[in-house]
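Need tokens for this chain, all 978 residues.
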Amino acid sequence: MKSNFRNSLLASTLLIGATAFASPALAQSGPSEADSSDAIVVTGSRIARPSLDTAAPLSVISAEEFKLSGSVNVEQVINLLPSVIPGTTGFSNNPGGGIATLNLRGLGSARNIVLVNGRRWMFYDTAQTVDLNTIPAFLLEGVDVVTGGASAVYGSDAIAGVVNFRLRNNLSGFEAGAQYSVTEAGDGTRFNGNIAFGSDFGDGRGHITAYAEYYRRDAVFQGDRDFSRFALADNGAGGFAPGGSSTIPAGRFSAPATATVNGVALNRAAGTVFNGFGGISRDGTSSLSPYVSATDIYNYAPVNFLQVPQERYLFGAFADYEINDYVTAYSEVSFVNNRVDNVLAATPVTGSFNVNINAVSPFLTAADVTALRQLDANETAINVARAANGQTPLFAGLAAAANATGVVQLAINRRTIESGGRANLDERNAFRVLFGLKGNIGETGLKYDAYYSYARTRNANVQQGNISRAAFQRGLDGTDPAIDIFGPNTLSAASIRQISIVAQNNDISTLQVANGTVSGNLYDLGWGGGPIGFVVGGEYRRVASQFIPDTALSSGDVIGFNAGNATSGSYDVKEGFGELRIPIAANQPFFYSLELSVQGRYSDYSIRSIGGVGTYAFGLEWAPIRDIKFRGQYSRAVRAPNVGELFGGLQTGFPTVTDPCATAAARAPGGLRNTCLATGVPAANIGLGVPSVLQANTQIQAQFGGNPNLNAEESTSYTFGAVLRPSFIPRLSLTVDYFNIEIGNSIATAGGGVANILNLCYNVFQDPNNGFCRLINRNVGTGSLDGQINPNGTASVVFGGAANLSSLSTSGIDWELNYLQPLDFGLVSSSSKLSFNFQGTWTDKNTFVPVVGQNTSIECAGFFGNTCGTPQSKWKFNSRLSWLDGPLTTSLRWRHLSAVNDDDVTTLYTVERLAAYDVFDLTMACEVTKNLTLTAGVSNIGGRTPQLIGDNQEQANTYPGVYDVLGRDFFVAARVRF
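Here are the structure tokens for all 978 residues:
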């Protein structure tokens, strides 16, 4: 997902062999040929060349596209590219994190490289992912997107491709701009203000460009929109039911029905209000009565963000100075302060707690106290039976106190609305400095370029609204003053202070790069193509990152945010690389041009499991005549595991997954039911659906961690296509390119994620001793995966660590059409121009194989859901029709996504298919004077809302990063230049 490119939008779009996301240059004259005498370096190569044509497809987004779309965050335009699947965005509240990421070709944000002016940019966490919020959109000259493996040119990570943000570093004069956006509902306001200036110094030997930007985005809550006000769930009958959470403000209190001793089931909670889903007190004064999901479930939606608030300050500068004819020094510096809030519903306290009956009895009715004493008597009888059979007591470890008379153990699900929502503030400070020297090597005709860069990002994360598990326990077992959790709004202010805790976590990441190249020309083959160009060079990179959790968070004491242990690690790599551009022939019969390119790189990693790896690429371009060019490239690329994958500490997560043992299919005799029974699911709890005793919520609990023995991912990719510029249709360009990317040794959660671990265990292998089944540890009482601590001290979760067991592949066709038609009339001038751009991608496949060698694959092209995640339409396109009438530009954009189907064939959801989605945007821009430009526009002019989804949604009853959630959205902008 990334944005912007070229100044002369249509010129670069219509006259080059690259694919370009065209937007009309505001009130500019028509396209003109670039000066072929000026050699330039194109993204995807380090060799200067006379044109923008390359063997690999190159998509270009102009700076004008950002202006016409009203986008001030680069993610907003990049995510609309047909080759991009939205990652984390400004609509990501849970999961969120206050960042914006790029997911090229749907292969994951870790499998592409983000460059700024051709060099690696700063990343923000242990996954080594770039936050697009750190890139100043207003300063963009353009954005280049290269498809396919580019590790031979740029090193590790460039498996899916490369996205290069080209910033203007040669600004002359002063410019300032401001933009204000607001939705039709009058909320979600956004304001951006920026300023930049550039000037020569030192008698013209030096130049400096400096800039500053401020951005503020206000919140929109899910409760502010009709489609997201109520959390929806499937009702099992083709419709929707109230969704949400079974952890409710009134509290839900339960215990297993029986305990088995020597093969005999002894009564524990059966016959009491604590059996099954448990009991609740709906008003805090009446006796506990059975929980009823349809009416008691908690609607968490209204208090969650739909649009996440953000505030950002961004500063930077570029400078260069010609020391002499052979040495030019240059530098870059940038600093970003980015603050993003995420807010979730009040803390859901879940788990098994020891309850001292005498301590809590003042808050209960006599009937409830009697029920607790009956449960206590049953637990005592179970322990007597266990002792008679030579067994240890029912409860061990932290739960051992429940073996005493007068203390019971209850599974408690209580949402502490008295403490307010869970506020998660991320404040990220990042800076990057770069110093380099470049110039000519004497009179040899060779050039050198060497630089060193250092980038550091520190994220301070403050979590408020948490509850301390230990303090909550002490308020129930009589150690501390007793807390009243039996009913809604029963916790006093003093009790909230007693059990609340604030967690503070930190991420620190650094990237060091030292790079040096020598480039020039060799000899001419003599067939009109020109001299052979070459580059040789070396690079050293050191990557370090750490996650420093609050001690209370890492210990598991914090309830409200996912627990996680510390992560810390680093590695370095030494590389040598080279590249040849061989123009074989030009202006010959049947060979208007013929060019071969060769690239290679050898990398030596300090990671012992990787060591040395080589990558390479070969490309060929052939134009038999001026009007058409054929091109193709084959490459081998690698991706080294990141710090998080290698050294990640144990983390807790709550993926949205349907437990196969909760499905109706599990009720039938056979392998699925047998496996459920063998892995600890009581027969009475099988096949009850969601919600049920087995799965009370659409989310289950899981744990994740790193693997220091990971190997590098390896990929092969090839592209081939054609560029058509017919001389008989002036101002028309058409590009068509096929792409195919295959990734082996892919790093993924073992089995490909929690949903697929469950699928492999219960639907594929159906063997409780299989390795995937052994990653599943169930609640010994109910069989659920709810994170409850079992008597043996283990958590009832699915564990998914990182492993090189998988493979990924994707293929499809990219299309681009551009046309400019002069008109002999206009409204404000005597002539005008009509420009049209169409850019689309048809994805043939996007296939994930969780375990190579097993006959199981997951197809995500044209699908969405709990396994594939974000919808990936097989056909996605953007088109723009613009009328350039003197100083006035009027532009209409059409965004299209084809329909997608749910990816889970074992579950029948209420919504199995999301229909095709079309949105239209309208913009008008006017150059009032040569110094002042005004722009106004409306996005989603039809007010299109997302299609509602139940159990297979991401959040807000939809996928908010894909489908428009704000509704009709307006913006106005002004820019001055002097």
